Input
Amino acid sequence: MTSSLPSVAHEHHERLMHGVDRMPALGDAILVAKPVDLKTPIAEMDAFLSGTLVPHLEAAEATLYPELDRMMQNRHSMTPMKREHEEIRKLVTDFHTVGQELVTLTPSLARSLALRRIVFRLYALLKVHLAEEELYVGVVNKGVTQEAADLLAAALKHPLADPA
Output
């Protein structure tokens, strides 16, 4: 039997939140830890962002958002969520770039503060965005046939990298 759309989405978001909820500790560590001690946590967060979060954005944009737009009579209701995806992608790219600079170049307070800002911006944006997205899943689930819900559940059940 196919997993229900709400249960797949909830499980998916729980796994995403596990990675997101590690962000404040990383943000705090950036100001007190030596760059050499940040190499592994930064690499793990980078892997989570590129291997789990970005594929999630792509899956939502390809499956969930078009269905929501259709249900809301193509009023571009998902445009704000898509804009947030653009901002999230930019922050993920910035995290990668500044994180690599921090652990490979001569460390500076400016680099540390820049990375810390990126981490906390991503954290705040993702907490709100993912919670809203989970609510949208409930809307979709009530407005589509079981067959369509099963197809959406299968599409959202893309492989996730295990957060460390």
